[in-house]
Design brief:
It is a single chain. Strand 1 and strand 2 form a beta hairpin. It contains eight helices and two strands. The protein is mainly alpha-helical and 228 residues long. Strands 1-2 form a two-stranded antiparallel sheet. Among the domains are: 63 residues, no CATH class; 70 residues, no CATH class. 34% of the residues lie in helices and 8% in strands.
Length: 228
């Protein structure tokens, strides 16, 4: 993928953090550990602040916001909302087309869907899966969930149908990996092997902790560097 194609999508991605994009002149990231990647992404229009001078790096990111960013940065197409097929997502929600597209492409792990169920239907000569349950789109996203959505999107982008045959290291050294949800462990290991995620600097990953805007920006920046 050419880098200029990624930049072309930047204006759309920016809305995941805010409605208006600004240059990287945020007073509240000065000296912050993620200042450089936030500034890089802001200058490219990929993320934006709450205002011209405030990014709020330690604020929360919702599941829908991160899903939108990771799909847009990899140019994964959305799908039109289909009533009754998009979990609990209302038709007029800004993220409806992203959740519908992610469901159709298998980007959301079943474990991230509360009361998950799926049935296969045939209509108009097309076979497709219809999902039910709740994605809880507006809930804060956990760090292990960021790893999962990033890895599933990357697998789709690279046309990898399953994780079988995808190499990852058993030498991952997070001291608290045992606290991660069992379903999330393969995604964490794979995302770590791809260089998308890292620890907290104290030897821990904190898989169940709520991710911050700064952490999300760092992951998106790593993805950009990987695919450009």
């Amino acid at each position: 993928m050419k880098f200029k194609r990624v930049i072309a999508a930047a204006a759309v991605i920016a809305a995941a953090f805010s409605q208006t994009a600004f240059a990287a002149e945020f007073n509240d990231i000065k000296g912050h550990w993620a200042e450089e990647p936030i500034s890089i992404l802001a200058d490219k229009g990929i993320v934006s602040g709450l205002s011209e001078t405030e990014f709020n790096p330690d604020g929360i990111v919702t599941r829908a916001e991160f899903l939108r960013m990771i799909m847009m940065v990899m140019e994964i197409k959305t799908n039109d909302y289909r009533s009754g097929e998009c979990l609990e997502v209302p038709k007029n929600a800004w993220y409806a087309v992203y959740v519908q597209g992610a469901l159709d492409k298998g980007l959301i792990p079943a474990e991230m869907i509360e009361n998950y169920d799926v049935k296969v239907v045939n209509s108009d000569g097309e076979t497709r899966a219809i999902y039910s349950g709740k994605f809880n789109s507006e809930s804060p996203i956990k760090r292990e969930e960021i790893a999962a959505l990033t890895q599933t999107a990357y697998q789709y982008w690279t046309n990898i149908d399953t994780m079988q045959g995808t190499n990852y290291s058993d030498d991952i050294d997070f001291m608290d990996l045992g606290s991660a949800s069992r379903w999330a462990l393969p995604y964490i290991r794979l995302a770590y092997a791809q260089g998308f995620i890292s620890g907290m600097g104290d030897g821990n990953f904190r898989p169940l902790a709520t991710a911050t805007r700064a952490q999300a920006a760092v992951v998106i920046n790593k993805v950009l560097n990987k695919i450009k």
